[in-house]
Amino acid sequence: MRDADHPDAGRGGGDLPGPAPRAEDVRIALQAHWELGPVAVSSLSGGMNSATWAVAGEEDPRRRWVAKLVRADQRPEFLRGLDAARRVQAVGIPTGVPEPTRGGAWSQDVAGGVLALLRWVDGEPLDGPGTHEQTLMGTTLGRAHHALRDTTAVTAGTSDPARSFPAWVDVDADHLAVEEWVRPAVRAALARYAGLVEGAGTGLTCGVLHGDPAQDAFLWSPVLRRCGLIDWSSALRGPLLYDLASATMYVGAPDAGDALVQAYARTGPLSAAEITLGLDVLLRVRWAVQADYFARRLATDDRTGISDPADNLKGLRDARDSLGRHG
Question: What is the pLDDT of residue 103?
C-alpha cells in the first residue's frame, strides 16, 4: 500500500497546521463517526499535504483501512477526489474508496481538518522504468480516465476548464522570485499551454484528474492480477493530458515513457492526435507546477515531509533542468 503523498506533489496546497493528531485521537474520532468496532491505529509515514494512519480491526486484523486527514481549506479537492475514487472503483479499478460515516457522509470534519476512512488496497507500488510497469500505469490511467472524462462538450457561454488550468499557479506570486529563472520559466510554460488551448480547435478533452499519478500510486497485486490507483486527494478538473504528462514525468520522460503512452493510447479516451499535439506542452506545464510548488516551500522554509532541507532545493533544480531541457 502506498503510505503517503508522493514528495513531488502534483499541485500546491500547503500543509496541516501544526503537528498531526496522535493515533489515539484518530482512533477516538473514527470510533465516534464510523461503525468499525474495536480498531488499532498507527501512523504512516508523513506526506507533504496530508497525514495518514493505518487502521486495522482488533478482532480481525484482515479488516484494514487508511485514515486520511487534510486541512479544512483542502475540502473541495478532497471531496472531489473521494467522489472520483468511487467512480473509478465502479469500473473495476481498486482506488481506496471512502467508507461512509454513521450519518452516510464520505468524510467528517474533525479537529485539524477533514478526515476520511479509505478501504485498504492490496498490492505493491510500481517502480515505473520497466515496460511491464509502464504498461500497467498507462492501461490503468486510461481506464480511469474513461470513468472521469467530461461527457458533455463545452458550449458557448460555459466555462472551459482547460482555459483556466492550472488555476492555482499565479505567475505574479512573490515566491516565484526565490530564484531569478523561476518566474520566466513558469510564465513561458503557461504561455505555451495557452497557445495550445487556443489552437486546439475542438478543445482538449477534460475531466476530473487524479492530479499526481506517480508510480507509487499504482498498486499491482500479482495474486489478484489487477492494478489499483490510490491517493486521490489532489483531484481537480482540467485536461486529461495533464495526468498523462505527470505519469510520464515520473518515469523519466522524454527519455522514457513510450510504453506508458502507448498503453494509455490503447485504453484511454484521448485520440492519438490529441496526445501527439499536446503531451510535450503539458509535460512542460507539469514541470512548471513543480517549480511553483518547491519555490513556495523554499520561500517559506517549509520542511514538512522531508528529512533534509536540501530536498526542496533539489525539487526546484530538477524543474529548472527539465524546463531548460524542454525549452
Answer: 95
Q: What is the dihedral of CA 174, 193, 145, 11, to 10 degrees?
A: -10
- Alpha-carbon gap, residue 30 to 132, rounded angstroms: 38
Q: Give the mean model confidence (pLDDT) for residues 40-51.
A: 80
C-alpha R_g of the chain: 19
Mean per-residue pLDDT for 85-110?
Answer: 97
Q: What is the pLDDT of residues 233-269, one digit of tens each?
A: 889 999 999 999 999 999 999 889 999 999 999 999 9
pLDDT at residue number 2: 38
Which pTM was predicted? 0.89
